[in-house]
Structure formats: structure tokens, C-alpha cells
Amino acid sequence: MTPVRKARRLRLPLAALLLAALGLLGAAGGVLFLQGQGIAPRALAPYIEKRSSGHNPLITGAGREFAALLLGLDRGHAMPAELLPLAIGAQPGATGPAGGTRKLVASSEEGRRAIAAAVPGDTIVFLPGTYRIRGNVIVSRAGAEGAPIVVRADRPGSTTIEFDAVEGFKVSAPYWRFENLTIRGACPQQEACEHAFHVVGGAHHFAAVNNTILDFNAHFKINAEGGRFPDAGLIESNTLADTTPRRTAAPVTPIDLVAANDWLIRRNLITDFVKLGGDRVSYGAFAKGAGARTRFERNVVLCEQRLRGLPGQRVGLSFGGGGTGKPYCRDHKCVTEQDQGLMQANLVASCSDVGIYVNAGAGTKLIDNTLVDTAGVDVRFPESSVEADGNLVDGAIRSRNGGRLHPGDNLETAIAMSYLGRHPLRKLFAAPDSLDFSWREAPPRHTAGAASAMAASDLCGTARGPVRRYGAFEDFAACLAPRRGDD
Is 0.90 topped by the overall pTM? Predict the structure, then answer.
């Protein structure tokens, strides 16, 4: 259950809600009460609007206006539709040809046959063009350590694969690598495009690198099959997004990782994952199902960039998500949802709910992350034990329902400040609403704790010493991709 639902469980009468709302404008007591309850303005606003709807026009209008006021105080300006050219996510620069035995394909059927007949060391190259594929592509021939099977485009952006299927590539064999592809969901009924990649069972050492993947419910779905687990995967330098909200009750989570161990998810750009059906709760990425040692490192997660202000709750990164049914857990128990997980040097921004949510995550480390325009960090349930150090959080770092939080040296903002429209940590940056995280002036520094001292670089790849800036950035300029002619 996500943090925002706590507000929905409050059973305050409407009159009391409106009195509390009015109190926020002039009474510190109302603000402190809401802070004590852990309710951020962005969580209270939709609740007030919902509870005031259906009454006489005066109450309905007042509820709507007050909800808008709360959101304005908490969230500030909308993020621009166009981002700065980040060197995070899929990059357009040309890459040289891969090694191995090259097999060129120029049609969807040629690609399907090449994948079905592949042997270790093959490199299947889709020539430039658009390939429309109906039905999924079964990937069941094993590669080998040191000789993976590679599916790629030689030049990023030159090859687009459009899937009209519930799942695109269903990968059940080890040592496959997909790179430099643009993959798009193209189902007549939007909800029918579930996954670009479904990685299952024996598909250990799967890799997806430098792909742009658009318009799926869960771009990557990873889970057990037949008692086997697709461990030790890599998702690196991909851009994952939806161009329209997903009208589905199915999970909407670009990286949906269940019951697998030892995955590295690094340097991806994840944006605009909006779920309009069912519970309307979506996540940028989560790992759950009694897996272990998942690492989210140096990713940029923008819950709402182009798609903003829509109903529902968007959470950035999570260990545990909304929980897992016992039959789908690695141990069939799910005493914990994730063990020894690490989130390090990530930027999470523009979320209608918390930026990081830990649900029954044991031995979790949250190190050097920057969260802006989110409801902060939420650690929940006694099974969760979290060490947090070096984070810069425009919001609160808190625990509830028995969650065990061991804070080191972090910068955070009390919930009460958000009700006053004050966000002092945002002022450290040049223009965070425009995704410019250059330091406005010399920022505060801290001495890294034992856990964060192991982090050798920031989000942009700049080396870090023992005395460092809070959050994900030492030098934001290193995160900007060179423009044409600059390199």
C-alpha cells in the first residue's frame, strides 16, 4: 500500500477537514498536526477535493480551490516539456559495429528467424528502418559467458521496432544483449501492450543497453518461471517513457522486477508513467518478491515531465512496491520484499507521491540521492531496515508502521515548510524546475559515512572524495550531453 493512501484512510468529517484547511492559512497548530501525521500537501489536496465533491457548489468550489492552493505551495512550477540534453539515458551518438558473427536483417520475419536460430557469439543487426512485429518474439536459444547473443542497431535511433502484442521480446535463455534499438508499443488497444521485454526463468545475465522504449505498461517485466530465476541482469543507459497516460488497471511500472537477484539498473532516464485505471498508483521502478541485492545507481526518474497534473499517485523508486503475493515470491513467503538493496546517486523529481518508498526492505542503503518536488522518503513496516546517508531531500525522510530508519548525515525539509510554500533546498540549485541542478552558490558539504564512502562517483560520473556535496551531484555540468559540434 502506498504512502498517499494514508490520507484516504483518515475518516475526518468534511467540516473538520475544512476547518483544518482554514487553519493552515493562519494557525501553526494545523500545520504541525499534519506534519505529525506525515501528510504532505500533495497528499492532502486530492483527498480534500474528493471529499468536497458532490456537495453544494460553494463547498465543491472551495474544496477545489483549496486543493489547488496546496498543490501550488508544495509543488511549484511545472517542469518544461523539453529537457536539457542529459548524458543519462539512451544517447544518439553513433557506436561502432559489435564483434562476433554479424547477421544482417532487413525485415521482421528475417529478424524473427535469426533470433530463433542464433548461437553464442552471433550479433543480429537490424538495418535502418521501421519494423512492425505482430505477436511476441520468443528468445529461447542460449548465449554463453563471453559469447552473448546480441540484437542491435549499429546506429542508435536508426531502427524502430513496433510491437502489436502483450509482450514483445520474451527472453527465457541466458546471455542475451539488446542495444541501440528504439522499441515502441503499437497496440490498437493501449492496455494490450504490456511489456517490451519479458525476462523470465533461465534468462540470467540479460542486458539492455542504450535503447529508447516507449508506450508500454511495464517496459521491462522480470520474474521467475518454472522454478528458475533470471538473475544478474543489467539495464543501463536506456530511455523509458510513455507518451500518453496508460488507461489500464494493470501495473504501470517501466521496470517491474520480481523475485530476481543481483540486478544492476544504472544511468537510465525514466519519465511519464501515469496510470489512469485501477488504483491509479504507478512507480518508475521497483524490485520486490524476496529478491536481493538490486542496485539502482545514477538514474534520473521524472515521474511527471510531459504528463503532469493527472489523477493518481506516482512514486519514483521503490524496494517492495505495493507488495507481492506469496506464490510469486522467490521463497514463497516474502517475509521481506527485498534484501540488501542499494539506491545510490539517483535524481528523483516531479512526483505526486514520495520519491523513494521502502516496503519491507531489509538491509537497504539509500546513499547520496537527490529528491526534488516529491513527498520525500517513506520507510514502512518492521521488516524494513534502512541506512540513509548523504541524501538531499526536498521533503521529509520518515518511517512508519514500525519501519526502522537509521539516518546518517542528510539534508531534508520538514513537511510543515511545504504548507508554507517554503523549499529552501531547491534554492541551492540554479533552476531545478528546468532540470538545471548546477549549484547556485557553494553548497554545504559533509563527510561521507562508511556506507556512502564506497560511492566513487556522482550521478554524472565525477569522482567523489570523502568530503562531498550532499545528494547526487558534485558537478552537474558533467551530466549535460555534448551538443552537435561540441565533441
Answer: yes
